Amino acid sequence: MIVILIGALLVFAGLLFMAYVAIWRGRLSGASRRDSTAESPTLEPKGRSAAFDPRANWPGLALIGLGSVLIYVGTSYL
């Protein structure tokens, strides 16, 4: 049971890490089409586009993968 709990916590931590990377990298919509000095009707911060980048998100993906393996191992031996 503890293995399943640790796996779930790792999956959750991986999702939080990937959300943190996406939020703090910059604008999510229209950064390449708009002028960075122009006012925007959105509340998004000015800066680079935060498209999904596996190089920046690999620790989160690794945590999710490890957590998934632990959940699978925990459920297969019950």
Q: What is the topology?
A:
Elements: H1 2-24, H2 54-76
Structure summary, number of beta strands: 0
Query: Helical percent range?
Result: 55-70%
How many separate domains? 1
Low-confidence stretches: none
Order of helices and strands: HH
Mean pLDDT across the residues is 80
- Rg calculated over all Cα atoms: 17 Å
Portion of residues in beta strands equals under 5%
Structural class: mainly alpha
- Structural shape: elongated
**Biggest beta-sheet profile:** none
Number of helices: 2
What is the straight-line distance between the termini? Answer: 8 Å
Overview of the molecule:
The mean pLDDT is 80. The protein has one domain. The chain has 2 helices and no strands. Helix content is 59%, strand content 0%. By secondary structure, it is an all-alpha fold. Helix 1 packs antiparallel against helix 2 (54-76). The protein has helices at residues 2-24, 54-76. It starts with a helix and ends with a helix.
List keywords for this structure.
single chain, 78 residues, mainly alpha, 0% strand, elongated
